[in-house]
Amino acid sequence: MTTPSIGQLLASTVPMARTLNLEYLETTPERAVLRLPDQPDYHNHVGGPHAGAMFTLGESASGCIVLAAFGDQLSRAVPLAVSAEIAYRKLAMGEVTATATLGRPIAEIIAELDAGQRPEFPVAVEITRADGAVTGEMSVLWTLRPNS
């Protein structure tokens, strides 16, 4: 039996994530990179990706890095997004790519979980268009909620 990839795991457990046909380019504990292909069904009024689609892309990238970093903790804690904030910086056209990075060391977060705490940690996401211009910046605050 093969172990599902982080992208397969996210798509199978979070139905919303699979609706956008996201491409999982890199999913490691250090970095997650997802691409939203250019799809007319998800365009806004000016022909670029809709803000909601860009939000879902960014939140999905943050979820992938959380699964990659803490997948071995799922038997004792559930990862949950606590809050999210996004800033749309430039007009996005065509495909866009989200790159997520953890804001705290993994070992520090697991140590808090080991101590019986409910750790919180930020994930930063940068959304770029094909020419490399940053079109959006997102911050998602996550927690690992211990199972009771």
From TrEMBL:
Family annotation (Pfam families): DUF4442
Lineage, top-rank taxon, reads: Bacteria
| InterPro entries named in the record | DUF4442, HotDog_dom_sf
- What is the designated name of this protein? Acyl-coenzyme A thioesterase PaaI-like protein
Task: Please give the organism.
Answer: Kitasatospora kifunensis (Streptomyces kifunensis)
The root-end lineage is: Bacteria, Bacillati, Actinomycetota, Actinomycetes, Kitasatosporales
